[in-house]
Design brief:
By secondary structure, the protein is α+β, with helices and mostly antiparallel strands. The protein is about 30% helix and about 15% strand. It has a four-stranded antiparallel beta sheet, with helices on both faces. Helix 2 packs across helix 5. The N and C termini lie far apart (about 40 Å). About 5% of the residues have low confidence.
Amino acid sequence: MAKVDFMDKPAPTSESIHALLKRRFSPLAFSSEPVTADVLRRIFEAARWAPSSFNEQPWRFVLARREDEESFERLLDCVIDKNREWAAAAPVLALSVARTTFAGSGQPNRHALHDVGLAVCQLTTQATALGVAVHQIAGFDVEAARAAFAVPEPFEPVAVLAIGYPGDPDALPAKLREKERAARRRMPLTDLVFAASWDRPWTGEGDAESSDPAPESAPGGGSASH
């Protein structure tokens, strides 16, 4: 399957944003071209340097490359049918996992999923810079994935990542092809950002400056992220 340039489907943003963020998208069509170990190391290195609460670094990843057919099929089998239909073409699958307690105290870390999301965001941005796409999959059997890869407590499988070079949408079944070519949409900022109160959408106007210094630490004296 031929590769497709990311700029075939740029985000129609209402404001100017970084080109990498504009280029990022989650394809259904993947090229059969392998993703080399060197590229994967760079992608996961970006995830390694994500910020996290108290520098806990709760993210873990289980990698399943097509070259390792047994582990690839094991992870693919955890994906629900409608996602497996297209994810099977990706040359790499990965399972993101969160440690849900702090390693030192054993207390619940309610920021763990947030921090895994940050790591995957950095992974995805680095992948985009290298011409590689990442499609995150929520539709998978969590307990099947836990069993298939012996994920211990207190770790929690979060998502499956399909990783590879974007492919030709024409190679997809008709229904998926239509979805792949559909316009990209997001809610407007006024539905997402509020000013001082939940019932007051922020209009994007006003540039009042504050002379207050930035806080040096999170409440309680601990660093919020590193």
